[in-house]
Amino acid sequence: MAKLSLVGIGPGSLDLMSIRAQQTIQQADAVVGYGPYLELIESLIDQQTVIASGMTKEWQRADAAIKQVMAGSNTALVCSGDAGVYAMAPLIFEMLSKSTLQIDVDVIPGITAANACASLVGAPLGHDSCTISLSDLLTPWQVICQRIEAAAQADFAITFYNPRSKKRQGHIIEAQQILLAHRAEDTPVAVVNAAYREDQQVLLSTLANFTELAFGMNAAVIVGNSSSYRFEDWIVTPRGYDNKYSLESGKTRAGQKPGHALKQQATAQPVLSEEQV
């Protein structure tokens, strides 16, 4: 029986794509995808049937992939990043759940835009974080704003997908204003355009100023939380080790125990001697 493989190709650089993803594409009878994404993997395409389509043609891509499988072709439906994150996997499963078709489906993970962009600026997602798409093509803007507000109140580091487009310039500014009600103006922000592609651009800014930078749909915007800080050309969001241990000596702080829940302290506590731990 033919199989439909939903393949995450990561940010677009072949050396960041899993071996399994590359082999699946190379061994497929048919490869389906958004035109620009297929261009990123053209070195993996030889004799396969190729079905390309443009922006906003996601249903058509999914339908074409399903039809290829039903016709007996092992098919790779390629997606940038991870197939299950703002990509084609949810649509495929939704369509199958509303039909009587029985198809063998395989999901092959890829490096997400959030992870790829974060790696270029250090450790901005070192603690709890979330992703929010600013595209209102499928989600009402009011709902998106509610999610931004909730993430801001919860002090998540946030990666914004689809931050700007030709038609949608103001959403990122509104998101900025929501965040400024909860975070300092100097909160570090990274704007990464086309991560790991030839036209990659990495820009560091602050919450108050990042909207002045030039970026579009191929960018991701990472906003730190209340603990995030700049270290040289990096953004660091602490995991919390300094709350329990001295980062200089590695010794446990007074009142804390390794392997036990963190006890809240008003200020950083002195470290314990080896005998006290």
UniProtKB/TrEMBL annotation:
<feature type="domain" description="Tetrapyrrole methylase">
    <location>
        <begin position="3"/>
        <end position="209"/>
    </location>
</feature>
<dbReference type="GO" id="GO:0032259">
    <property type="term" value="P:methylation"/>
</dbReference>
<keyword id="KW-0808">Transferase</keyword>
<keyword id="KW-0169">Cobalamin biosynthesis</keyword>
<dbReference type="InterPro" id="IPR035996">
    <property type="entry name" value="4pyrrol_Methylase_sf"/>
</dbReference>
<dbReference type="GO" id="GO:0009236">
    <property type="term" value="P:cobalamin biosynthetic process"/>
</dbReference>
<keyword id="KW-0489">Methyltransferase</keyword>
<feature type="region of interest" description="Disordered">
    <location>
        <begin position="248"/>
        <end position="277"/>
    </location>
</feature>
<dbReference type="GO" id="GO:0008168">
    <property type="term" value="F:methyltransferase activity"/>
</dbReference>
<dbReference type="InterPro" id="IPR006363">
    <property type="entry name" value="Cbl_synth_CobJ/CibH_dom"/>
</dbReference>
<dbReference type="InterPro" id="IPR014777">
    <property type="entry name" value="4pyrrole_Mease_sub1"/>
</dbReference>
<dbReference type="InterPro" id="IPR014776">
    <property type="entry name" value="4pyrrole_Mease_sub2"/>
</dbReference>
<protein>
    <submittedName>
        <fullName>Precorrin-3B C17-methyltransferase</fullName>
    </submittedName>
</protein>
<comment type="pathway">
    <text>Cofactor biosynthesis; adenosylcobalamin biosynthesis.</text>
</comment>
<keyword id="KW-0949">S-adenosyl-L-methionine</keyword>
<dbReference type="InterPro" id="IPR000878">
    <property type="entry name" value="4pyrrol_Mease"/>
</dbReference>
<dbReference type="InterPro" id="IPR051810">
    <property type="entry name" value="Precorrin_MeTrfase"/>
</dbReference>
<dbReference type="Pfam" id="PF00590">
    <property type="entry name" value="TP_methylase"/>
</dbReference>
